[in-house]
Each structure stands twice: as structure tokens, then as C-alpha cells.
Amino acid sequence: MAGKLSADSIRDELRSVLAMGAQVLARMEHLGEDAARTDAEQTALETVVAFFGRPALAVRNGSFGTPPVGWEVLEQHRADIERTIDATGRIELVGYGMLGTGFLVAEDLVMTNCHVAKEFCRRAADAWVLKLGVVPQVDWLGEHLRDAQAAFPIAGVAALHPVHDLALLRLGTAKGASLCPAPLRLASQGPSDAASRALYCVGYPMKDHTRTPPEVLLRIFSDTFGVKRLQPGELLSLDPAQQQLAHDCSTLGGSSGSPIVDLETHAVLGLHFGGTRQENHAVALWQLAEDPLLRRAGLRFDSP
Predict the structure, then answer these.
(1) InterPro entries from the entry (predicted)?
(2) Which fold, 90-171?
(3) Contact at 8 Å (CB) between 268 and 154?
(4) How deeply is 138 buried, as exposed, middle or buried, from its count of CB atoms within 10 A (0-12, 13-18, 19+)?
(5) Residues of CATH 2.40.10 domain(s) within the chain?
(6) What is the per-residue pLDDT across 26-85, written as a single tens digit (0 to 9) for each?
(7) DSSP string across 108-126
(8) C-beta neighbour count of 31 within 10 angstroms
């Protein structure tokens, strides 16, 4: 069938895939995690895990719906999560489309990835500047089935980190009466218990078949991409030597530049920059609390 699948088709396929995934889980319970699986069974297993364990909740009017089974704890943190939602925006080029995600870290500074910023920045002598002829902006809304915008122009480049995939962009003044959200709080200390610590990510995942099977994308994102979503997950590991952390929130290409937030403290632990089918990666921001580039930019790191 050309175009999007009908609701009935999606429900029928979902039932089939979930049934297969349940069978695989039952077999693994008896034979162990190394039990042989076909490609179809592996996809079904990933779909079950993602559908129930790592959802991607659409944001509407700055909030999210009733949390799914297994993530009821999100309701207890709704007010704090909504503040993170407000301060996360879609980075885009006027007349072109979205590039990634960014979040407010100071009154006029947005943090994102270097690989996002380089789409509209260039090196000039000893500084980074905006390319001629492009009009980048940050839209603090970008929600599903909502045409309203809260767009602020990106007026310049504050810094691109020479080591990490981290960029700071300077905001300009928005036309009209748009209000800029409050900056997010950056953690100055790492989590005391790294194993399975609950996290969440807010971003604008775009369709990406390079590391996620189309069937899994359809079930998690309902074939709707590039809109603001809340994606809960867990911290998998820390890599102090590389100043990185690994997590398992359901991210895709447009999630580049998303904040990785501690569900307990609501401080930003990481800056998401990429991943694989097994895990996702983020810059461990607390390890950069004394970084000269970030200190010169005036970023504040608060203890969790």
C-alpha cells in the first residue's frame, strides 16, 4: 500500500509482531538470551522492548499524555519534565527544514552538537560564523498536529568545542511576543549510582533506517517524525576517559543535540550526539564543569 498504513493495518501488524516477540521472550526464558533467532524474530523482539520499555511520547501543548505501563513514575515528575520540554527546541533552517535539537543553557545560549551547527556555520580566521544566505532558528514548539511556532533566530556562534561534539549558539530577538523559556540546569556531578538510573530525553527524532529497522520505527513513532517527543530510558554506562555516557532512550537522527536528563534531579547529565542499535551516546556534561570554553561562555553547573 502506498503512503501511510491505515490504523487498522497498523493494529493488525502490531498484534502480529507483539505475538512473535512474546514467543521469542518465552523461548529465551527457557533457553537463555543466546537462543537462536531469525531476523524477523529479532525485529519483533526489539519492537516489544521499544514499544513497552522505551516509548517516544508525543508532546502536545507543552505536555505529554498518560504515561505508558512501566513508566507511571513520569507522572510524579510532570512539572519538572514540562520545564525541560519548554526549554528544548527544534533547530532548523528557514525554507529548508529541521537539522536537529537544541536546549537553552543560558539566557541567550543554546547547546547542540557541532555536527548540527556546522550545517549553517563556517570557520573564518579564528572564529566560527554563520554561513551567508542561511537563516537558522530555534522553534521551542514544533509539536505534532500544531502549526504554532515560538521561533527565535540564531544570531551567531558562541563556541564549537575542539574535542567534543558540542556547540553553543547565540540567540537573537524574536519577532512578536514570543517568550524564551527558562534555561535548564546542568549537573556538576555525575550520578552516584550509574547502573540502570532512570533518564529522559526530549528531542525531535527524524526517520532513520540506518540503525533502526523500519518495522520498529513504525511501532515506536507511528510514522510521524520531526516533532517534539519525550523519550524515557536508562543510563547504561559511564566512560570517564572519553567523558561520555551511554543510554538507551529511543533516539534517532533528529535527536542530535537533545538533553539527557536525570529523572530524579532533573539536571542535564548529557548532550546526546549519536548511537548504534545497541546503545546511544552523549557527552557527559558534568565532566566539563571546569572546561575553559564553557566557563568563558558563562554556563552554570549546579550540583544535583
Answers:
(1) Peptidase_S1_PA, Peptidase_S1_PA_chymotrypsin
(2) Thrombin, subunit H (2.40.10)
(3) no
(4) buried
(5) 90-171
(6) 665 666 556 666 766 665 555 555 555 677 888 989 999 898 888 899 999 999 999 999
(7) TEEEE-HHHHTTTEEEETT
(8) 10
